[in-house]
Amino acid sequence: MSMNVKENYNAVVIELKGKLVGGALSSKFSNTLYDYFGKGKKNIVVDMGELSFVNSSGLGILISGFTSARKNGGDLKLANINNKVEGLLSITKLNQIFEQYDSVEDAVKSYGK
Length: 113
Known about the structure:
Number of domains: 1
Oligomer: single chain
CATH class: Alpha Beta
C-alpha cells in the first residue's frame, strides 16, 4: 500500500493505493494527519480510487483518522469509492458515518472556501 499527500485549496487530499490492511501504514497515516492538524489543516479527503482491498484493520485506520479529525475540529471525507469498498462500508454501516463523494473535487468543494 502506498500513500500520496497533496494540498488542494482548503483541504488535504490523501491518495491511498493498493490494499488498506493495517501494519506500518497505519502509523504513517496517523502521523500524517497529526502533522497537518498541527499546521492548522483540518479538512481531510481520502481518495480511495486506487484501493483494491480494505480489511477490518483498514477500516480501523479510517475510523481513527475520522475520530482524530473531529477531535481537532475538522472532518475526514471519502472520495472515489469502488463497489467492493462501498459494499464493506454498507455492511458495517460506516456509510452512515463517513461523507462519501464521487470525486476528490466534489469532496474538496464540500468544505467551502
